[in-house]
Amino acid sequence: MIPFNKPCVVGEEAAAMQEAIEQTKLSGNGPFGKKCTDWLEARLQCEKVILTPSCTAALEMTTLLMEVGEKDEVIMPSYTFVSTANAFALRGTAIRFVDIEPNTMNISPDAIEAAITSRTKAIVVVHYAGISCDMDSIMDIANRYGLWVIEDAAQALFSSYNGKPLGTIGHFGAISFHETKNFTCGEGGALIVNHSESVERAEILQEKGTNREQFFKGMVDKYTWRDVGSSYLLSDLNAAYLSVQLQHAELINKSRLRAWKQYYDGLTDLPEVEVPHVPSECQHNAHMFYIKTNQQQELIEYLKKHDIMAVTHYVPLHSSHAGKKFGKFIGEDQFTTTESEKIVRLPLYFGIGEEAVDDVVTHTQAFFNT
User: Where N6-(pyridoxal phosphate)lysine occurs along the chain (predicted)?
Assistant: First the structure.
């Protein structure tokens, strides 16, 4: 069976984790955590990176930093993972789901602007498959209406828009290091803080609402409870694993891009299939390769019979029980539902061989040619 995903392992992670154990610092913001944040801040050229237990936790931190509440509204795509919406549902914020652009599966700027009201406080964009949203248009809208912008860049490390890394364009960005992502530590994430005035408070929120980080920096002689917060820290064991992945990030990225291009070259001419569209201003990271077909379930079953695991993706949130409870779809659902029902994601992971990709391509071609 060719699996849909394999967690990324380059071979040096166990040694790094053993080193973390020997250093006797296993909790958050340890030596390996600093290695990771230093690497990310240098790579992203951003104000501040804070490692978190998950991308979900990073998104929750943005809601605290923006102080959204029950009187506010947030605009986001319905076509996203539940964490994007959950962060705001926890604060009682009304969620306004809007439509996507069918060529990229990303949020529509026109739909965003049409959904803005006097209660709107923030826009959350999701860079689907590591391909950027139309950030110029979205930031223009945000600036004209005075709105916060959060980039859910869970899938987008190593992707960029007009040369700028995703996650660094809005006020905040959130990255995932879950085992399904390009770079992983099993469970983990990061908050990118691009809003200078929020850096100090973000550090306090991460440390359970205390100024403990400032204490360790020698900025105060003792630390105390300063604000609300939680334990938004990534264990140094996880950070040790992640540090190896980041050290070999170019190798991992190159491997995935090779497989993505092999899929693209092999499937782009199939008349019954639509392959991913990458706008000219976008550099993607080969997070996933999907095709669109009106025979979604039939193709998945066919590939399964040939020992290939292909999968669908999100069920639009506005159609779910919780989506109806915590939000509503604004405007016409012109593309979200219909396009989501066409998605088939093909196997893609670090180390997938050319032979395996060729096997998937060959069987996919055979399905449509019979």
Answer: 181
